[in-house]
Amino acid sequence: MKAGITIFLPEMELVPHCRRAGSLSLWRDTSEVLMRPATAIALLWLVWVVTWIAAAVWADPAQKRATIGAEVRYRVFWLAGTVLLFVPAHGYEGRLRLWTPSLAGAWACIALIAIGLIFSWWARIHLGRLWSASVTAKADHRIVDTGPYGLVRHPIYTGLLLALLATMAAKGTVWGIAGVALLTIGIVMKAKLEERFLRGELGPAYDDYARRVPMLVPFTPA
């Protein structure tokens, strides 16, 4: 009986101990994954994309649209740039990596990404139902020049550019730089297309707004 007890009791104590150790190990591994800068960056962009698409229903119908040809041109740059920027680079070391940010530097980039995405959301909420994914005019379209639109004429793009540049800095790769370059070209193309379209729809009122407020960079000459 003593031998049986001697063998049996440690087994009873070992099972809960193993379970606790396994749970702690799983929690630690999960925490390490979530605390990786690459994971944090991916989660920020994923949350932004999902919520941005989900909010598309919160918009008035368009009364007039830019031509398909005009839309396609900037979207090609967006697609190519997105593919290049978000090529996985975690753990990559080679000639196409130009720098490797420190852990503190990577988290600083993550903070800038979050600021940029939040700024873009502020602009979208402030614009309300006048927002559109493409270049359009809505019924009762008007100039919004308050909130973030008092700082720049295209605050959604300003926030996105900040987030994109910070993502590029965190990646430190040639294809990251190429991706942001293409995305920036596409964003500027769309912003200029919107301005031509809105000038045609809103006339001198938009010209006056453009003279007062800079296009993309706050606190710079308009």
Which key features would you list for this structure?
222 residues, mainly alpha, two-stranded antiparallel ribbon, 7 helices, 2 strands
Walkthrough of the structure:
The structure is a single chain. Residues 5-12 have low confidence and may be disordered. The protein has 222 residues and is mostly helical. It is elongated and about 55 Å long. It contains seven helices and two strands. The chain has a domain at 67-130 and 143-211. The chain has a two-stranded antiparallel sheet. The longest helix has 33 residues, at 2-34.
Structural class: mainly alpha
How widely separated are the two ends? 91 Å
What is the number of helices? Answer: 7
Q: Strands of the largest sheet, in order across it?
A: 1-2
Name the quaternary structure.
single chain
Q: Give the overall form.
A: elongated
Level of helix content? 55-70%
Q: What low-confidence regions span 5 or more consecutive residues with pLDDT below 50?
A: 5-12
SS elements, strand count: 2
- Largest sheet descriptor: 2 strands, antiparallel
Series of secondary-structure elements, N-terminal to C-terminal: HHEHHEHHH
Strand content bin? under 5%
- Compute the gyration radius: what is it? 25 Å
Summarize model confidence as the mean pLDDT.
88
